[in-house]
Specification:
The longest helix is centred in the N-terminal third of the chain and has 37 residues. This protein has two helices and no strands. It is mainly alpha-helical. InterPro entries: Ribosomal_mL64. This is Growth arrest and DNA-damage-inducible, gamma interacting protein 1. One of its GO terms (cellular component) is mitochondrion.
């Protein structure tokens, strides 16, 4: 019984996180449907092959962008650490 308040707090935290993830997923889905509607000019069924193909394409593009950003950051850090510190006079 002594652990009950912590268990309740953990349960509430987990519940909040689950709710937040569902909310984010719903927002993502809505955004994708809106983008599909804009691309194709009509409402698309989320189960259709066209929609699924578009989602895969978008995810691929996002993955490329993320990888490019990571590479640029790594290059910037390498040049910053390789450059000698400026001599102060």
């Amino acid at each position: 019984m002594a652990k009950m308040p912590k268990m309740i707090a953990d349960w509430r935290k987990e519940k909040r996180e689950t709710k937040q993830k569902l909310k984010e997923e719903k927002a993502r889905r809505t955004k994708l449907l809106a983008e599909a509607r804009e691309r194709f000019g009509y409402a698309v069924d989320p189960r259709s092959p066209k929609f699924l193909e578009m989602v895969a394409e978008i995810e691929k593009e996002e993955k490329k962008k993320k990888k490019l950003m990571k590479r640029r950051l790594r290059e910037e850090q390498a040049t910053a650490s390789a450059a000698p510190p400026a001599a102060s006079s």
